[in-house]
Amino acid sequence: MDLNADLGEGFGRWELTDDSGLLRVVTSANVACGFHAGDPLTLRRVCEAATAAGVRIGAQVSYRDLAGFGRREMDVPRPELAAEIAYQIGALRVFAQAAGSEVQYVKPHGALYHRAGRDTDQAGAVVEAMSLTGVRVLLCQRGTELERAAKAAGLRVVGEAFADRAYRPDGTLVPRGRPGAVLDRDSAVAQAVDLASSREATADDGNRIRVEAESICVHGDGRDAVETSEAIRSALDDRGIKVEAFI
Q1: Which end of the chain, C or N, has fewer beta carbons within 10 A?
Q2: Whether pTM exceeds 0.85
């Protein structure tokens, strides 16, 4: 099972994620590409550190929404959105290659992740951008419009699950802002083990749901993200579940 986290989510002197701490634990790094967070120097530093740690680099692409941290849904025409996503991937690629690595996958962030999961037009924009840049691996939830669009284009889809977010009965995440949407550390560890061992989770109504995934995400901007990631990795190791990158 792969363990991924969002990195580089700062801007200038403002730092949100403990990148060095997370890179000691995770196997894949979703690097903010400047549209919801991140700046050129941060991108460069994260790529260098990830390469040195042997962690895979992925482009975490977003709507152009620094003020809203990419968590506000936007109606962006498909050609414009595809170009903006390709632009973000290209920016990260410069620093990944300079560090001796490569952008090996794409993962949409925040509102774009969820909108593209249900909107065929927005999903098509993500896939079009990947085709423009030549990145062939997409990290997203299974059973979504985004997965269907990617598969139709011949891309590899890696299923993603979330350790620190609560699920609804339909397999979608409980929206942020609602009580219980973000899990505490102990609950996140228990859910991660459940996801890795049984490919299931307990939804917020108490029912068990199937969650097919090859990678588990811990949000890098969460409280105690490093400690939660360490606890998850330790729990997986204790149960004989090998933690390794999906690429």
Answers
A1: C
A2: yes
